[in-house]
Specification:
This is MtrB/PioB family decaheme-associated outer membrane protein. By secondary structure, the chain is mainly beta. The chain contains five helices and 33 strands. The strands form three sheets. The chain has a 26-stranded antiparallel barrel. The protein has a three-stranded mixed β-sheet with strand order 6-11-12, with no helix packed on it. A two-stranded antiparallel sheet has the order 17-18. Strand 3 and strand 4 form a beta hairpin. The longest helix is centred in the N-terminal third of the chain and has 13 residues.
Length: about 700
């Protein structure tokens, strides 16, 4: 009885309030010297030690005739395997370790291992693979793909046009356009005491494959397979200090990019024009480094929180220029590029009362290009470009300010509003300063039983300094042209969301958004952009073990553009584009079948994107319809064979089709271009996988 009475006494003291605590009646002042705590035990507080978790392996068969399907199925080969794991180990002395793996062995596999002692240190290692597949049927007459020089066959016969190259059809060979990234990471964190801690993280990313580029000599071009052999090393290290109401951190970030290929050379497939070259060269992405140091912190007291960050950095690039095929003198052997960056963020939040909270923030980011300006002799590509050009040291400064307040009108009804400001400053630009001012408000209602509703609206206006054509950027453009990201703009937006639960086992959610960008002062350029989007979802727990969910999303973006021919002072042609995206899906699962050992599930998604462009210049011309359609099916059955062993069978299907005029092109379809041929997709792929999972 003594044990029970003391618990009740402590509970009463804990709820007596601040007044009693101030008079010496708080828990800290309780006389607990006579309490025998020897036999006190908390059965729920027991920490399990040893290993726990699960590990699984899977093997499957992939049936596909288009490598593009690997983007959805994460399987490139016919036979695929994977390893999944979620294993934890806890020791009695606070040591713990964890191993996690997801689809390891497939194209999107990842794994991470962490170990350490709680409150002392942690060591981690991780791996991730990301693959992107474009096509395996691209065609080219060049050999040496993946190297720094592309050669034509020895029997090649040059011509003035691609459809006159007699050796072209017989010289074409397919190759794969794909990119693979592999990331490896190491990390270490150390907690010295309650005041300070330190950390260091390292990541290496290797990126390899082949991507699309082009090579041009005068006005004759060819699409070329560019080799990709990149490596990027990133380092993050810092020290953190913290107290009862504050913390601060000093952090260094470094990035080091290396490209094993500095240039790409290629034989010219065309008959030399006006003494033109028989081979071309182009420089590839140069090596570069970036370093930043930041100081961040936060302080909180009396319902107020203030946080901020100061950041300084430098980006450099000093790789030697590629001079192959360039017969002019260079002012320097490399650009010796140097860009300094400075940033500052500060945010404050103050709770005025239980019903009112205000917040404000300010962001500053400055990019100062310190690279010297030189005059370069340009090889003429067309009859517009000149012979002398200069590298332009672009600088930019962005400042953002925000003020907001949220007020609880009554329980379940909250009104939020704010003001946002942004200023962009750019040198060597058609417009050097732009200012954006926006106001917004949001009303959220949850006071009604089974209902949650919100309505938000905003209005923004962008203007700025005088718009003047710059000799650095627009010497060949119509002086009335207004670039959409610099032009005056009025933006209106409204969005709403409603969530309703008419039954305990049924939830319905609906949302919609409308936005209008009006470029009313633009004569030549984008004049209007309109967006309409809405979505709906239903989740219905039909039975305790049977669940159904449905969803639908739609988005439409319409743009209107005005153009002019021959530097006309009025618009002479008009273009309208309409982009639509629709996604619909359903999912169902039935659990605890066959004596609570079997779970069945089915997920289906259909998505379609569609784009049309129409141009009016006296008569209306249709540029054709672009679309991409995809259907995804995943049917699965999971069976608990024993207490520790579970079997799972997955069937996945992806059906994909697209139609893009830019990809539906014959190799010699344009007289002064050698293309990769038709890169469109139309396929149905299947993947069947059996997995075994073992519980430790």
């Amino acid at each position: 009885m003594k044990f029970n009475i003391n618990l009740i006494t402590i509970a009463l003291l804990a709820n007596a309030g601040a007044a009693m605590a101030a008079d010496g009646y708080g828990i800290a002042d309780a006389n607990t010297g006579s309490i025998n705590m020897k036999n006190w035990k908390c059965s729920a507080c027991k920490i399990e030690t040893g290993a726990s978790g699960q590990v699984g392996v899977g093997v499957g068969y992939n049936d596909s005739d288009d490598i593009h399907s690997a983007n959805a199925l994460a399987a490139e080969n016919d036979v695929v395997g994977k390893v999944d794991a979620d294993i934890r180990y806890r020791g009695k002395d606070g040591y713990q370790a964890e191993i996690k793996a997801t689809n390891l062995g497939m194209e999107n596999g990842r794994a991470e291992i962490t170990s350490g002692k709680i409150g002392k240190y942690k060591v981690s290692a991780n791996y991730r693979q990301i693959a992107t597949y474009s096509s395996e049927t691209a065609l080219t007459p060049y050999s040496g793909i993946g190297t720094d020089y592309l050669s034509l066959p020895s029997n090649w016969v040059t011509a003035g046009a691609s459809d006159s190259m007699t050796a072209l059809p017989s010289s074409l060979s397919p190759f794969e356009l794909s990119l693979k990234r592999k990331r490896y990471g190491l990390g270490f964190e150390y907690q010295a005491d309650q005041l300070w801690s330190t950390f260091v993280h390292y990541q290496r990313e290797d990126k390899s494959g082949v991507k699309t580029t082009s090579g041009t000599i005068f006005n004759q071009s060819a699409m070329l397979p560019e080799p990709v052999d990149y490596s990027t090393d990133t380092v993050e290290a810092g020290i953190k200090l913290k107290g009862d109401h504050w913390f601060t951190a000093l952090t260094y970030n470094g990035s080091f990019f290396r490209n094993d290929d500095q240039s790409l050379g290629f034989d010219s497939a065309y008959t030399p024009t006006f003494g033109g070259a028989t081979a071309g060269y182009k420089s590839l992405d140069p090596d570069n480094n970036a370093h930043t140091v930041s100081l961040s912190g936060q302080y909180s007291a009396d319902g107020s929180v203030v946080s901020g960050r100061l950041m300084m950095g430098r980006m450099t690039q000093d790789q030697d220029f590629v001079t192959s095929g360039y017969n002019y003198a260079l002012p320097e052997t490399n650009l010796d590029a140097e860009v300094d960056i400075t940033g500052m963020d500060i945010r404050a939040v103050k709770r005025i009362s239980n019903d009112l909270r205000i917040s404000g923030s300010y962001n500053y980011y400055d990019r100062d290009n310190q690279t010297d300006v030189y005059e370069w002799t340009q090889i003429s590509v067309n009859n517009v470009t000149g012979n002398a050009v200069y590298n332009t040291p672009y600088d930019s400064t962005v400042q953002k300010g925000k003020l907001a307040a949220d007020y609880r009108i009554i329980s379940g009804v909250k009104l939020t509003g704010g003001y946002d400001y942004r200023r962009d400053e750019r040198n060597y630009s058609d417009r050097e300063v732009t200012d954006e001012n926006s106001v917004w408000a949001r009303l959220a209602v949850s006071a009604l039983e089974h209902w949650n509703m919100s309505l938000k609206g905003s209005y923004g206006k962008r203007d700025g300094s005088d718009y003047e054509a710059s000799q650095w950027t627009s010497s060949e453009a119509n002086p009335l042209l207004r670039k959409y990201y610099l032009a005056n703009r009025d933006r209106k937006m409204v969005e709403a969301r409603v969530t309703h639960s008419p039954l305990d086992n049924l939830t319905i959610d609906f949302g919609g958004r409308y936005a209008l960008d009006d470029y009313s002062d633009t004569v030549i350029g984008l004049t209007e952009s309109r967006e309409v989007s809405y979505d709906a979802s239903v989740n219905y727990q039909i039975l305790e073990d049977l669940n159904l969910n449905l969803f639908y999303n739609h988005q439409t973006i319409k743009n209107e553009q005005a153009g002019a021919a021959n530097f006309s002072t009025v618009a002479t042609w008009f273009a309208n584009t309409e982009d639509k995206v629709d996604v619909v899906g359903a999912g169902v699962y039935y659990d605890n079948l066959l004596e609570k050992k079997l779970r069945l599930g089915l997920d289906y998604t259909y998505s379609k994107s569609d784009s049309t462009t129409k141009v009016r210049q006296g008569v209306t011309g249709d540029y054709g319809d672009y679309f991409a359609k995809e259907q995804d099916v995943n049917a699965y059955a999971q069976y608990q064979a024993t207490e520790k062993v579970a079997l799972r069978l997955d069937y996945k299907m992806v059906k994909y089709e697209d139609n893009d005029a830019a990809n539906d092109l014959a190799v010699d379809g344009i007289w002064n271009l050698i293309s990769f041929g038709d890169l469109s997709h139309d396929y149905t792929a299947h993947l069947v996988m059996l997995s075994v999972n073992y519980k430790l």
